[in-house]
Amino acid sequence: MRATAPQGMDEVAILGVLSEHKLITPEQKQEVVQIHNETGRPPGKILIQKRILNEKQLYRFICKDLGMNPSKTYSTRSFTLGGITVSKFRTGGDFYGIFPMADGRIAMTLSDVSGKGLEAGILAILLGNLLREGIQMQNIVPNAIMKKINLASRSFFGNDQFATFVVMLLDLYSGTVEYCAAGSPPILVYRNKEQIVEEIDQRNIPVGIYEDFQFKGNSLNLDKGDFLLAYTDGAYEARGWRGDMYGVERLRAAVLRHREKKLLRMLTGLKKDMRRFSFPRGLADDTTYLAILRHKKR
């Protein structure tokens, strides 16, 4: 069963989602609400400090019921969208989602949550439900979604939890991508006509730091054969055996090497390049790639 979005974004709404899907009991929900009302402590902190949630169960819920980190690509006549994630530990802090909308657009989201385990899982549920709520609204834009996410995160966790976050809305008819990136690495765009990789940096701070921060969005167009790549910092922070960092420039070069492959093979190629470079040190952090490929022939 798919999770439904909460009707509101207050503290009780996310607790209701956790209770509805049996991640916490109704009694535990009431206990958290009571402590929150009496002390003013954010519900997210209470859940973590009291060790109420099971980490593995929480992660399964995020991937199965919220539909985050899907293993299959989403394809249309003109586009293929997809992602892959590699966790440093059994459960990670990176989550991505692909959500078709009723108006011919597709919403895509990528988040990297500070801290791991329960903190990451709870915030991922909060973000996933807010996104599902947001994409039902007409004329929604990425920076408006980001503002909602920021306010809800602050309400549920206070100022101790933050996440880098990317929201993209792809128009399937025009090829326009509206986006807002909060504290994330620069988006890379391969331009097929010029055979170059552009680096697009969006100067926004991560979600969850300032309540009144005004997030800025932008847009770009994908022509036939173009390829957009969003990723988390694990994709470039890996270090080689000499201690040098993989870096964004090596990632850009890898995009050029794998540009003719189908989307999932392209992303797998990027992952393998990074893993070879970082051997035997291993991953520096969770690593996730999320991409949009516009087909050449349609």
Coarse morphology: globular
Enumerate how many helices there are, as a single number.
9
Mean of residue pLDDT? 85
Give the count of structural domains.
1
**Alpha-carbon Rg, integer:** 19 Å
Task: Output the CATH class name.
Answer: Alpha Beta
Q: What is the name of the CATH superfamily?
A: PPM-type phosphatase domain
Estimated structural class: alpha+beta
Overview of this structure, please?
The chain is an alpha+beta fold and 298 residues long. The chain has one domain (11-294): PPM-type phosphatase domain (Phosphatase 2c, domain 1, 4-Layer Sandwich), CATH 3.60.40. The chain is 35% helix and 23% strand. The chain is built from 9 helices and 11 strands. It has helices at residues 11-20, 26-39, 43-49, 55-64, 118-134, 142-157, 234-237, 247-257, 263-278; strands spanning 74-75, 79-86, 94-100, 105-113, 163-171, 176-182, 187-191, 196-200, 218-221, 227-231, 287-294. It has a 6-stranded antiparallel beta sheet, covered by helices on one side. Strands 3-4-5-6-9 form a 5-stranded antiparallel beta sheet, covered by helices on one side. Strand 7 (187-191) and strand 8 (196-200) form a beta hairpin. Helix 4 packs parallel to helix 5 (118-134) and helix 5 crosses helix 6 (142-157). The longest helix has 17 residues, at 118-134.
Quick take:
By secondary structure, the protein is an alpha+beta fold. It contains 9 helices and 11 strands.
